[in-house]
Design the sequence.
């Protein structure tokens, strides 16, 4: 009987040990991203020696997507945990994809913050287009209806009483091709975003007709989003992840690390360092909140604008679909 009790106790201890080991396993965060350096999380494995918790309480499974619409699908089917969504897609995910448990949890970057970069909307230097009203009847390049820059153009047209459907002709192209479209005169007007706006040939051949800030004010361009059950289940590990994200952003933004940051991005993207050196993580770059707190007021205005342009059936109260507790908790640790 004593032998049996001893074996039973040993088995219980082994089971307890297995449970403890399992509980101590790092939480795998499946993180969806589209572009570096717009998102810097894919760089985290390269600087894990500077982070406190990476590989200990959490690990990253980095999943690349062509754009935010594909991330909505993956998040709806449970294939990713955190997505990087544009202001133009977060409302669609909630309203059209019926993900009412989706929460805005972090800032990625913002356009039009005073002193920082704002997207530019260009015409050729010798173009007869001198003011927005001159765009009537012209060909405009877009990367797709409902994208962030597409919404800015449509808002600017509306401000100047030009019908965005009948008053202009739209042609679709990927963002990197907009400069070529202008210079080859396949379009009369096109957006220009980082890093493509820093192309010297493009700058030499074009001029700015207006900026995104002129069109729509400040924009909460990209946010992180996650579903509530995942957040509730993994708060401790996610807070550690957010703390590491703040540490990483501070390191990237430190002038002493500028050359190293440029090299990391260049090595990752296979794009020459010269493309990034003059602007990356400077005032010439988009604004990133140092505590990862998104501008919900700006985001609300961005969503309301989509409703005004007929891109949403109805607006949503984005504060009801936000949870900033992880960012706030991580910031307090710093």
Sequence:
């Amino acid at each position: 009987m004593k032998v049996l009790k001893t074996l039973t106790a040993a088995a219980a201890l082994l089971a307890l040990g297995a449970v403890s080991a399992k509980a101590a396993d790092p939480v795998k965060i499946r993180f969806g991203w589209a572009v570096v350096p717009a998102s810097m999380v894919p760089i985290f494995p390269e600087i894990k020696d500077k982070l406190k918790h990476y590989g200990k309480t959490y690990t990253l499974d980095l999943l690349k997507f062509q754009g935010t619409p594909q991330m909505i699908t993956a998040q709806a089917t449970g294939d990713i945990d955190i997505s990087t969504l544009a202001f133009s897609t977060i409302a669609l995910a909630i309203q059209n994809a019926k993900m009412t448990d989706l929460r805005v949890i972090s800032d990625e970057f913002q356009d039009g913050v005073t002193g920082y970069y704002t997207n530019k909307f260009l015409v050729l230097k010798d173009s007869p287009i001198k003011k927005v009203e001159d765009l009537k009847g012209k060909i405009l390049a877009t990367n797709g209806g409902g994208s962030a820059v597409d919404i800015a153009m449509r808002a600017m047209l509306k401000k100047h009483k030009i019908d965005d459907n009948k008053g202009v002709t739209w042609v679709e192209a990927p963002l990197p091709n907009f400069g070529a479209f202008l210079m080859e005169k396949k379009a009369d007007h096109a957006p220009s975003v980082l890093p493509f706006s820093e192309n010297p040939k493009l700058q030499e051949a074009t001029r700015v007709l207006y900026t995104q800030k002129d069109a729509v004010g400040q924009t909460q361009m990209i946010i992180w989003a996650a579903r509530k059950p995942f957040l509730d289940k993994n708060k401790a590990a996610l807070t550690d992840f957010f703390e590491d994200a703040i540490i990483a952003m501070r390191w990237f933004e430190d002038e002493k690390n500028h050359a190293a940051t440029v090299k990391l991005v260049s090595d990752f993207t296979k794009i020459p360092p010269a493309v990034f050196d003059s602007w990356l993580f400077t005032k010439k770059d988009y604004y990133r909140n140092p505590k990862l707190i998104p501008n919900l007021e700006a985001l609300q205005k961005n969503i309301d604008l989509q409703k005004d342009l007929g891109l949403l059936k109805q607006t949503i109260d984005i504060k009801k679909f936000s949870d900033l507790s992880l960012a706030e908790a991580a910031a307090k640790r710093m």
Remarks:
- DSSP finds 13 helices and ten strands in the chain.
- Residues 120-216 form a domain with the D-Maltodextrin-Binding Protein; domain 2 fold (CATH 3.40.190.10).
- Strands lie at 27-33, 58-64, 82-86, 102-111, 120-124, 139-142, 169-172, 190-192, 206-211, 219-227.
